[in-house]
Amino acid sequence: MPTKMTHICHVIIMLVILCLRHIRCASRPNIVLLIADDLGYGDIGCYGNTTLRTTNIDKLAQGGVKMTQHLTTASMCTPSRAALMTGRYGIRSGMAAIGTVRVCVFAASICGLPSSEVTLAELAKQGGYSTAAIAFSNWTNIRGQQLFMVQ
């Protein structure tokens, strides 16, 4: 049975894929990528939740692309986020484990994402976009983006 994190990761991956198709358009769309831990598919209003009020997210979804098909690369957030940022499975970037292979659990730890990995933010910058990360977490070293930490 898919977990809540699985659903949100699927939404995010599909959003990125669809948005990247339009990077070369003359009038480029704005891209807002929301990543949240433990947020389920039905936890926000635009996906059917009537209990929690998520009016601003609902407005963004109303004027943009809303994803309904999903895939996650791992059951942990770090490998899934690394996959989203690079387009590669976490094991290929050293951010996941298989058997006895070392896993990098926290992206802000000393192992981090290898500098040889090309990130979504770096590709967006090459396409003329300005990028930024607004973080409420331990992701303090995100290459290719200006970082705004909220604590």
TrEMBL record:
Signal peptide per UniProt: 1-25
GO molecular function ontology, one term from the record: arylsulfatase activity
Top-level taxonomic group: Eukaryota
Protein name: Sulfatase N-terminal domain-containing protein
Cofactor(s) named in the record: Ca(2+)
Sulfatase N-terminal domain residues: 29-135
Pfam families: Sulfatase
Family label: Belongs to the sulfatase family.
Taxonomic classification: Eukaryota, Metazoa, Spiralia, Lophotrochozoa, Mollusca
Record organism: Potamilus streckersoni
Stored InterPro entries: Alkaline_phosphatase_core_sf (IPR017850), Sulfatase (IPR050738), Sulfatase_CS (IPR024607), Sulfatase_N (IPR000917)
Key words, A-Z: Calcium, Hydrolase, Metal-binding, Signal
